[in-house]
Design a protein that fits this description.
about 150 residues; single chain; about 20% helix; Aminopeptidase; 3-stranded antiparallel beta sheet; 5-stranded antiparallel beta sheet
């Protein structure tokens, strides 16, 4: 997939006072098994204060993205409680469709109640709670278990 991958212009990604701004395209790294992706800042409008970020990876969720999944996000502590992450997830959906995805996968820590709520607010369905294999990079970073959610596109 990565040989013929083309980065797309995400266009305007706005929901009221929230805007996703593309900060960089992330090329694939076949040596590490990384797929191409995008990094966005979540910004408040007006003013453009960065409240967090969201990463969208384009690849096969059954293999290379089974544990990190397609999407990762975080909101700065002082901006939590405004549903920026769930709103950002919803803004990413049309862009994911443009990349040919039919299902978007999201992972989070089972103990992170706020992240799980983010998935639920975006109408994601819990697929499973999985153990991360010991030989996976995430395990080495201390992530041993993840919740895997999906949104049908």
């Amino acid at each position: 997939m990565t040989e013929d991958f083309t980065f797309l212009d995400p266009g305007e990604l706005v929901d009221g006072d929230l805007e996703l701004v593309l900060v960089r395209n992330v090329p694939a790294d076949p040596v590490k098994g990384y797929v191409p992706g995008y990094e966005f800042e979540m910004r408040c409008r007006p003013g453009g204060a960065c409240v967090g970020n969201i990463r969208f990876r384009v690849g096969d969720a059954d293999t290379v993205l089974k544990y990190p999944c397609h999407v990762g996000y975080d909101v700065k502590p002082e901006f939590r409680g405004h549903r920026y992450a769930s709103r950002s997830l919803l803004l990413i959906l049309p862009f994911a469709r443009r990349h040919g995805l039919t299902r978007l996968w999201i992972s989070c820590d089972p103990e992170n109640v706020a992240s799980r709520k983010t998935c639920e607010l975006a109408d994601a369905k819990l697929c499973d709670i999985s153990d991360v294999p010991k030989d996976h990079e995430m395990y080495g970073k201390g992530i041993h278990t993840i919740c895997r959610y999906y949104i049908d596109l």
